[in-house]
Amino acid sequence: MTAPPVLRVTDAAVVRDGKPILSEVSLTVRAGEHWALLGANGAGKSTLLSLLGAVAHPTRGTVDVLGHRLGRVDMRELRSYVGHVNPRHDLRSPLTVQDVVLTGLTNTNERVPRWEPTPEQIATADRLIGLLGLGERHAARWPTLSQGERGRALIARALMPSPRLLLLDEPATGLDVAGREQLIERLDTLQHTYPELASVLVTHHLEELPPGTTDVMLLRDGRCLASGPADEVLTSDQVSKCFDHPIRLTRADGRWSVRANRPARP
């Protein structure tokens, strides 16, 4: 018997103040698949991710997250089963990396008063911290962390409840080359460590895609331009249409890179 999909979006549309943000978008994500949502700024990527993370309702169409139809389920409770990584994490206390990761169990930004994690939960947090390459920084305070270290700590935090779905909203924003490469390396490690985990990553930079990316949706002006296996969707022609610019796309060692496709000089 085929397992139900982790995510199923059918003809979803989002309209705000009379303006269409998403139009007739459909998407199915199954266990072990790693999707990327690609498109220019304003293409609708973050809006679609907000539907997938049970943060917002569609204006039309249906969205099923972990087998639950939005509009028929407690959204707050459903969100606790989704590992949603937002690099704009609003943390005001100088928590340690370990404390930040443990807040993934309470689905709060700060430590809950009088709540104490069990030894098993602490061990899980430390294991995830190590898996994300932060083992030597587990006692470091949030204000002392680099942008890349914060991003990887938030991924560890999102994994604490053992979610079936991980959502990453532009996780490489603001990172230098070293930070980006460390992030991609750890995402690749996660995909091998948790083979049943599904993920959706939002970006507008193809260089940020982990080599384990299985599927891609290209969005343009709130509509799906192309969707399916990464090797079929990520072509120079389709990416050029997505970003409305002539682009030459290449792939080496599992990683993509783009260059402007300039006409040859006479």
UniProtKB/TrEMBL annotation:
| Transmembrane segments annotated in the record for this chain | none
Q: Which domain of life is it from?
A: Bacteria
One Pfam family of this protein, by short name?
Answer: ABC_tran
- The entry's keywords: ATP-binding, Nucleotide-binding
The residues covered by the ABC transporter domain are: 7-246
| Family matches, as InterPro entries | AAA+_ATPase, ABC_transporter-like_ATP-bd, P-loop_NTPase
GO MF, any single term: ATP binding
Q: Which residues form the signal peptide?
A: none
Which SMART domains did the record assign? AAA
Q: Which Gene3D superfamilies match?
A: P-loop containing nucleotide triphosphate hydrolases
Q: What name appears for this protein in its UniProt entry?
A: Iron complex transport system ATP-binding protein
Query: Which species does the entry assign this protein to?
Result: Micromonospora matsumotoense
